[in-house]
Write a structure and sequence with these properties.
GTP Cyclohydrolase I, domain 2, alpha+beta, 3 helices, single chain, 4 strands
């Protein structure tokens, strides 16, 4: 069986995330990297976007999940995004997600988490 990976590198968005007082009052930037692996069961038709998984839909799902409500922990957000992608896109069998908070500390480019999950 053939597999294909769609990836996002440094998808930038503003989210309501964190437990600190200033994080509870305002959004902060996040950077998202994702590797999304799927099974390919049909030939690509160069004239029909429906013959592939449209990465615009994956991007939209990631953004919606990251911006729909305040989340206290970046670990929780990572789990939420992965579950959304696995639930909404049946062809996806594995997701590796990296979420970085670039403004968390002044002495490093970002701090965050990386999480990976596969369909059972």
């Amino acid at each position: 069986m053939t597999t294909r990976r769609i990836f996002f590198t440094r998808l930038a968005l503003d989210a309501r995330i964190g437990i600190l007082e200033h994080e509870l009052r305002a959004t902060q930037p996040l950077h998202i990297d994702a590797d999304i692996d799927m099974h390919v069961d049909q030939q690509v038709n160069d004239h029909d976007i429906r013959s592939v998984l449209d990465y615009r839909k994956l991007r939209e799902a990631i953004i919606e999940e990251c911006t729909r409500a305040h989340v206290h922990l970046v670990e929780t957000l990572g789990d939420m995004v992965i579950q959304r992608l696995l639930n909404d896109f049946p062809e996806v069998f594995r997701v590796r997600l990296r979420i970085g908070k670039p403004l968390a500390f002044s002495d490093c480019a970002a701090v965050g988490i990386e999480v990976e999950a596969s369909r059972q």
